[in-house]
Amino acid sequence: MPEMSAVIQVELPSGDKLAIIRRRFGRPGPDVPRVCIVAGIRGDAPEGVRVAHQVAKVLEECEDRLTGVVDVYPCANPLGAHQGTRMWPFFDVDLNRRFPGKETGHQPDRVAHALCSDIRGATQVIELRGAREAFSEVIHAQVRERDTAAAQLAMGANVSLVWARKPGPAATQTFAHQFPGTIVLEGGTGNRLNAAVGQDLQEGVIHLLTQVGVLAEVDLPFHWAALNRPTVVSDAQVFRVRAERSGLFLPEFEVWSEVEVGASLGHVIDSENGAVLETILSPTKGRVMAVREHPVVYVGTMVARVVSL
Amino acid sequence: MSVIFSIDAPYRGQYELHRLTYGSGGPSVAIVAGLHGNELNGIHAVNMLNKMLRAQRPKGTVHLFPLVNTFGADQATKRWPYDDQDINHAFPGDPDGSVVQRIAHALFESTDAEVCIDVHSGAPHVREIPQVRAPMGGDELELARAMKLPVVWRRPGIRLEPTGLIGAWRAAGRKALHMVGGRGITLDNRHATTMANGLFNLLGHLGVCGQMGSGMDTLADVTHADVEAHRASCGGFFVAEVRVGDPVQPGHLLGYIQSPIGGERLDEVRAGRPGIVMTVRAYPMVHAQELLVRVAGTP
Q: Is ipTM strictly over 0.90?
């Protein structure tokens, strides 16, 4: 049976206890690879949490054949998940801006610190997310720019795209930044579950486990030939498309549709009379990586992301 | 009064960033409040300063931005409510970016002054004595002391995050100070008045306005090492026994934590040094390790 333990247990003012759970599969030992899978850092991404549980279920069935350790942390922000909010409630902070955390800090800081302490030394870290709130996103992996080893590994994650991203201004405070080589898997729709997306992500994670040597390929519950073959893209190939009028965004394309340069991606319509205020055009030939689902937009709101392939 | 930036808002009127300007030429001062929509003391303090300035002929330029995040203030939220983004994490901004980046850019560009002050309240769950947070030395510390606020808190590297307004101002070579007082979501009129007087004192020090002689005195001029921070040893219901500004001696009962069900006393918090109470927890439900009381040490 897998070992279940609390990475940290925090006390709520009411006296209730809140535990951040780790499920460990396999037996640790010297020179044994360890993969850590973390989900639910933001409470509005239930897809990642569900995939973590699905992966754990697969691991339960093949634990005796694991050649390494897999630690699954299904939900790092359970209070946020309870409310479906991105932030850690009450403190109203983004847990993904609190890493590496602080042992003597407030509750989210201590959770961040405990997670980092527990994961330190892992062979490979995988962060599972859903799509960002208000968006549908293609299933993709994110790795750090110039980390060719992580990009190569992420090619086997059953994603449509591997995005090698330049770190942003807040990167040092994110979970993924704490562990070089981390692969972040995203996809689906914010605060929603999608069976097909979940299945793809689950198969991607399981396949990654074979790539890092904790699971034999013969134990894959599917054939590797069925996996997606992604391409690696850089920031220069990813175009953020923004509205230049405020109103309601009406998309004309679905995620991963092919578009030509200048093709209409959708319209911004007047929220008071329905008149078309703006037609939003694709800046490049490529595919639609992300589409805004929540219709209310301001000037400057990102409505789509298009990748040039 | 001028509108320096506006943006259409679906289902409601335009967002407008307002600036009130007095005088012309140097020295120039920009004072910003309401970056966080639920921090009302700064808004009130700047509007009180506005009334004071109406009776003056400033020798220099004073730009006032009493309320940046009007939409947040309408909804009592700290962040810009549409996409829950903190404007104070969007500097120096981007004229082609998201809405908060555009607001941040417009504000940053229009606060091109020699001295810049960002005025805040405490968070909604704590009450802060009116204070100015400044670097450890230099011109900015001198300006901070000229405010004569109850507490001057010298902090190394204070607010130098490149995405914060203070950090962006400093990176652009502007002298920048961070003022805090009272509690979020609440109007503390007494504290707001003190903050307004502090701003006026600063303008007097710079020669922009006449000296007011407000009778204010700094009670504590401290570094981080002089500030005693008491944190909760356990979760529970915190009952404060002091108010901000109270003088305390070692052993003084600052408050206690009790069980929220039954009221059993779980821990007591006592001062370890003489000083002035500068921060008090206002929302009583506390988690372990949360800040309860800060005491600014006095000699």
A: no
